[in-house]
Amino acid sequence: MYPTIQIFGREIATYALFAAAGVLAVLAWLFAASSRRKLAPENAVITGLISCIGVFLGGHVLYALTNLPNMILAFSHYDAFPDFWTFIQYLFSLMGGMVFYGGLLGGIAAGWIYMRIAKLNIPAYADLFAPAVPLFHVFGRVGCFFGGCCYGIEWPGGFVYTRAPIPEANGVARLPVQLIEAGWNLLLFLALALLLYKGLCRGILFYVYLLCYAPARFILEFFRGDTLRGIWFGLSTSQWISLLLILAAVFGLWRRTYRLKKQQYNKAE
C-alpha cells in the first residue's frame, strides 16, 4: 500500500506513524483510566513509557531470533561478503524488524520490573494495561497493512500490494489478515475497557486478555502469507508462544484463585 509517506518533504515510514499514534493513544488511556480507578496517573504513564522501551527491545530481539538460521549462515559464509561493513549491515537487516509477541513479553518484563521497584499494586495496574495492549495493537496492525508487512495468504478478493518492502508480497491479491487482527483487537479493547469500567474481573483482567488474544492469534497465523516468522514442527514461532501464553494465563488464574481462597480461609479462622 503506502510503506512511506511524505511529510514536509521527508519520507517517513507509515508503520512508525501508526505506532507513534498508538503509543499516544495508550498513554491517554492510561491517564484517564488510572484517574477513574483512583490510581496515580503519573505512575501509570511512567510504567507505560518504560514498557514501551521493553516493547521496542523485545520486538527486535525476537525478530532476530526468528532469523537465527540466516545469521548462522552469514557467519559461516563471511568470506562471501565484500567487506566487514557489508556483513554488519546485513546482520542489522536481520534484526531490523519487530515481532509483536517479543514486544509484548519485553513490555511485560519492563513494566513488571518497574512496578516491583516502585512498589506499585501490580494487579491493579495490570488491569489498566489489559485494554491498553489491544488498543496499541489496533494501530500497529493497521500500520502493518499500509506498510505491506505481516501480509496474508493469496485470496482472490484481497488487496494487491505494489510497493511492499518485501518483494514476495507484491503483485498478488492477498487476504488483509492485518485488518482482521486489528478488528479483533478493537473488539478486545472495547470488551476489556467495559469490564474495567464495571469493576469486573479485578486483578485478572490481563489474564483475560491473554486468553482472548492468544487463541485468536494461533488461528490467524494459518492465514499469514509471509514466511519470515520461523516454522518449528509445523507451527510458527508465534503459534508456539500463543500456546505457552494460554498455559501461563490458565496457571496465573489458578494461582490467583488459590491465593484468594487461602486468604478467605485464613480470615474465617
Question: How would you sum up this structure, described in words?
Answer:
By secondary structure, the protein is mainly alpha-helical. The protein has one domain (4-203). The protein is built from 9 helices and 6 strands, in the order ββααααααββααββα. It has a two-stranded antiparallel sheet. It has a two-stranded antiparallel sheet with strand order 3-4. Strand 5 (231-232) and strand 6 form a beta hairpin. Helix 1 packs antiparallel against helix 6 (122-147), helix 7 runs antiparallel to helix 8 (205-220) and helix 8 runs antiparallel to helix 9 (237-268). The radius of gyration is 20 Å and the shape is globular.
What layout of secondary structure does this protein have?
Elements: E1 4-7, E2 10-13, H1 14-36, H2 41-66, H3 68-76, H4 84-94, H5 100-118, H6 122-147, E3 154-160, E4 173-174, H7 177-198, H8 205-220, E5 231-232, E6 235-236, H9 237-268
Antiparallel strand pairs: 1-2, 3-4, 5-6
Helix pairs in contact: 1-2, 1-6, 2-5, 3-4, 6-7, 6-8, 7-8, 8-9
Supply the number of structural domains. Answer: 1
Arithmetic mean of pLDDT? 87
Rg, nearest Å = 20 Å
How would you describe the shape? globular
Number of DSSP helical runs: 9
Tell me the series of helices and strands, N- to C-terminal.
EEHHHHHHEEHHEEH
Low-pLDDT ranges: none
Biggest sheet strand line-up:
1-2
* Number of DSSP E strands: 6
Question: What is the makeup of the main sheet?
Answer: 2 strands, antiparallel
Distance between the termini: 65 Å
The chain-level structural class is mainly alpha
Percent range for helical residues?
A: 55-70%
Strand content: 5-15%
